[in-house]
Amino acid sequence: MLSYNHSNFTVHQLPVLKDNYIYLIEAHASSALIVIDPAEAVSVRRACRELGKPLTHIFNTHHHWDHTDGNQSLKKDFGAVVIGAAHDAERIPGINLKVSEASPPLVDGLNIRVLDVAGHTRGHIAYLLDDALFCGDTLFGAGCGRLFEGTPAQMWQSLQKIAQLDGNTRIYCAHEYTLANLAFAVMVDPENSTLKERLARDSEKRQQDIPTIPSTIEIEKATNPFLRPLDAAFLSAYAAGKAVKPEALAVFTHIRQQKDHF
């Protein structure tokens, strides 16, 4: 269990299953202990014992089983409040509190915003706590989620919303997909020296079994092919090279289609 300190809370990172990350958020000014997307319950119970604290809340970003499978068991064990998107509540196991951008969860000692980030699923949300974004399967290290239910336009709108956050915001996504995503990114953006540096840095991390996550907004904007259409020079060069309309949505859509078959 690796831990990352923020001003009002500590994030504990739990690697589970093949490549999932579960996150525990331990508030500094209250007894709140939140789990984000519990893919399974065993690791969460073990972490709670190590921290010596009971789980108080379960936050889900979306309904997929590898983000919600621990909900019912942990709710039964701890009496934790299960929280998820109001507009997708019927697919969140054990949900107690339905939240939205206009109605975020209130947790003592924490400042929480909800972002509607549809695309991967139609009901996907993210949670922003100060300078930490828990974005599930919307944005990955050098990647973004597949469009299982949403449209390219929805996902592009969601990614633009995330890209507007402060550059130092740490990205806590739900999977360790970074190296595979970087291999694709280098093909898409071969002249990007910052991307090549990231590939070397993150490859070394994985060789040592160190997570590449969290990343930051600044790093993703500079190296993630799904955010690179925000850069005018990249947009123009990519559109010309692929005979794509020189508009951000068209370029994003083309890149997403290429990744689906990579």
Describe this entry's structure for a reader.
Monomer. This protein has 262 residues and is an alpha/beta fold. The chain has one domain (2-102, 109-183, 212-220): Metallo-beta-lactamase, Chain A (4-Layer Sandwich), CATH 3.60.15. It has nine helices and 14 strands.
Order of helices and strands: EEEEHEHHEEEEEEEHEHHEHHH
So what's the overall shape?
globular
CATH topology: Metallo-beta-lactamase, Chain A
Radius of gyration: 18 Å
Secondary-structure blueprint:
Elements: E1 2-5, E2 9-16, E3 20-27, E4 33-36, H1 42-51, E5 57-59, H2 65-68, H3 71-78, E6 81-85, E7 97-99, E8 112-116, E9 125-129, E10 132-136, E11 139-140, E12 143-144, H4 152-163, E13 170-173, H5 178-188, H6 193-207, E14 215-216, H7 217-223, H8 232-242, H9 248-260
Helix pairs in contact: 5-6
Task: Label this structure with key terms.
five-stranded mixed β-sheet; Metallo-beta-lactamase, Chain A; alpha/beta; 9 helices; 23% strand; 262 residues; single chain
Entry summary:
Helices cover 35% and strands 23% of the residues. The chain is an alpha/beta fold and 262 residues long.
